Amino acid sequence: MLFLELRWQLFRNSLLRRNRRSELGLQWLGYVFTGFFVVATSIGFFAATYNLVREETFILALLLWAVFITWQFMPVLFSGYSPGLDFKEVARYPLSFRLYFSLNAAYGLFDPSAITGIVWLASIWLGILLQRPEWAFSAALVFLFFIAFNVIGNRILVGLFDRFQSTRQGRERVAVFLLLMALLPQMLQFVANGWIDTRSLQSHKWQGVREVMVTVLKVSPPNLLSQAITKDWAGKIVPIAILMGYFLVALLILTRNLRRVYQGEVYAESFTVQRELKIKPGWKFPFLDESVSAIVEKEVRYMRQNSRLLVQLVYPVIVFGFVAVGSAKRVPIFSNSGNVLASFAGLMALSASNLSYNTFGMDRDGFARWLLSPMSLRQVMLAKSLAQGLIMSGLYLVGAVAITTLKHIPLTAVIGTTAGFLCVLIVQIGAGNVISVYWPKKVEPAQMSSRMTSQAAGLASLIVNLPLMALIGLVVLATWMWHLTWLPLVAGLVGFAASIKLFSVLLNWAERYALEHLEDIAGKLTS
Amino acid sequence: MAEIILETTSLRRTFGPLVAVDDLNLTVEKQQFYGFLGPNGAGKSTTIKMLTGLLRPTSGSIRILGVDLEKNSVAVKSRIGVVPEGLALFERLTGAQLLNFVGRMYGLDRDTAATRTAELLEFMDLKDSADKMVADYSHGMKKKTALAAAVIHGPAVLFLDEPFEGVDAIAATTLKRLLQRFISHGGTVFLTSHVLEVVERLCTHIGIIRQGRLVASGSLEELRTGVKVAGHDGSPLTLEEIFLQIVGGQKQDAEVISWL
Prior knowledge:
Chain A is mainly α. Chain A has helices spanning 2-16, 21-52, 58-77, 87-90, 97-109, 112-131, 133-164, 168-192, 207-218, 221-230, 233-262, 290-304, 307-326, 337-351, 353-356, 367-372, 377-407, 411-438, 455-482, 487-516, 518-526. Chain A folds into two domains: 2-201 and 212-262, no CATH class; 290-526, no CATH class.
C-alpha cells in the first residue's frame, strides 16, 4: 500500500512541478486519449478473438505478441515520461531481500503498460470463453503465467536500462536508441505507403534471414503460449516446458541483478586513460571577430556532441532521400524535378526550429555565463543564429547539390529556391530568438521526455510558419497560373532582403524582452 | 588612501514583498580579500548576483573599478571574473574547450587563450581530464574549472560565490593557492562562504549580512574589538564566535531536540 501511495504521490508531484502547469491541459488530454485507447483496443482484442479464434488460431499468437511488446518495451520507451522510483534508493531502507524483490515486482505490476496488458489479456480471455469454452481454463492459467513472466521480464529490462542510464554517455546513447525506435514506425509507414521500395528484401539472398526469423518466432513466448492454449494435453507439454525454462532463467537473472543492487552495487561513471595534453587554438571564421568566432565554435561543438540533436537534424534528410530519390514516380509531387528541390528546401527550413526555437535550452546553467561575459545578449544571440544558419545551410547545400546533380534542375530554379530557403531560414532563426526568450526550456539530452523546445514554442511555430507558407503558396500559384517563370527568383531575392531586416527587428525585440526577464529565463533553464 | 575597487550605495533588492537586500553600503579596497558572510537566506547570493550583473538591483548603485555597473556593464564585466552560484559552465564542452572558449569570449587571441588554458589546466590538476566533458567532472573539478574560467582573462577583481562548498581538501588547497597568488599580484577578491575557518585564514576584511542588511564590516581585528562575548576567557575571539554573536543563531541546549 505504501508503494502504491508513493507511486500516486510521484505522479501527482510530477503534475505540480514548476513549468508544468501550462502543459497540464495537454497532459490531461493525453491521459483521456490513453484511456480511450485502452478501452477501444480492448474491445478490438475481444472482437478479434471472438470472431477469429474458432477458425484462425494464429490470431491468439498475434494478439499475445501485441501484449508482450507493449508490456516489455513501452515502459522503457516512455520511461522519461512518467515519474519513476529509483530502486537503488529503496535498497537503503531496512527491508529484507525477499521484500525488496517483491516490491520491485509489484511496482512493475502497477505500471500503466502492465495494466493495459492485463486488460487486453482479460479481453482475449473473454473472447475465448464465449467461443471456445473448452480452452478457457487452460487459457486462464496460461495468462496468469504470462502476467508473471511479463512482470519479471520487464523488471529485467528496466534494470538493464537503469544500468545504461548510470553514465551520461550511456544515458545519451539510450536516448538516441529510443529516439530511433520512436522514428521506426514513421519509416514503416513510408514502407506501407510504398514510398520506400522493399522489393529487394524479397530476393533469394534474404532467404536465410527469413528462415532464422521463422524459427525464432516459433519458440517465442507468445507463440508457445498460444500452443499451450490451443493444443491437446499431449501437445501442451513441450511449449509449457520451454515456457517454464524461460521463466526460470528470467527469474534467476532478475534475482541476481536485484541482489547486486540490494547489496549496494553502484553504477559508477567510468574513467578513461587520458592522452597527453595538447590545446589546439580555437576556430577562426572569416569576417567574424574573436568573441563571435568563439561562440559559433561553441555552438557547433555543442550540436556535434549532441547525438540526439544530430539524429533529429539528419533523419528528415535521410527519409527525404529515400522518398524522393528511391520512389519518385509513386509520389506525384516529385514528378517535377524542381518540386523535389523546393520540397527539400522547405523541409530543411522548417527543421531549423529544432535548433533555433530554444536557443539557450542546451546551455542550461551556462546561460549565466552569457550574462557574465563582456558581450551584449544581442551579440550572443546573433552569434548563435550564425551557427544555426551555418549548420542548416550546410545540410541544405549537401542535399541541394545532390538533388540538382541527379535531377538536372535549371539554374534559375536553383537560385530562386535557394533564395527562398535562406529567406525562410532567416525568419525561422529570427523568430526562434524571440520564442527562445519567451518560452525557454531546459533540455536534458539524456531524457526521452525532454523535448528540444517547449510546447508553447511548438504552437508559436504555427504563427511563424503559416504566413510564410501563405506567401510561398501565393508565389507558386501566381507562377503556375500566369506562367511567370521569373517570379520565384525575384520573390526569393526580395524575400531574402526583407528577411534580413525582419531578423534584425526580431533580434532587438528578443534582447529587450530577455533583459527584462533575466531571472525568469535563468530560472526556467536551470530548474 | 587605497584605491576603492567596489562601492555600493543604498543597494536594495526586493522579490515581491520580500526584501532580500536592504540599504547595503559596501566598500572594498584594492588587494583586499573580502569575505562576505551571513546565515542562509541572509542575502549573500542576491548581493553577489547584483554585483556581477546577474540580477538587477531594485534601487541603489554599484561602482566597480570606478565604473557604474548599470551604465557600463560591458566595461565592468570585461575586468571582473566570477564564480557564480551554479558555476555557469557549458557542461557539454571538454574542460580544455570550455577554458579556451571563455578566454576568447573575453577577447583573448586564439594563441593566448590556448596557452593560458594549458597553464590553468596544469595548475588546477585538471590536465588528465582536459579532454573529458565537464558534465562528467566531479563537483570539485567543476569548481576548479569555474575558477580557471574566472581568471583566464586576467581580471582585476574576482567575485566568488561559495567557492569552497563541496570541494575536498586537495582541491580547496589549490583554490586557496590561486587566490593568494591573485591577491599578491594586485587583484581583489570578494567571496561568500559558509566555511568560517577558511574565511578566517584567507580574508583580510569581512562583512556580515543579516536579513538583507550589513550588520558588521571591517578587518578581523576591528570585528574582534567591536564584539564582546559574555563569559569568554579573554583569548582572541574566533570568527565563528564573532559570527554567532553578531548573527545570534546559536541554539541553547534546551532548544535541542529532546529525544536525540
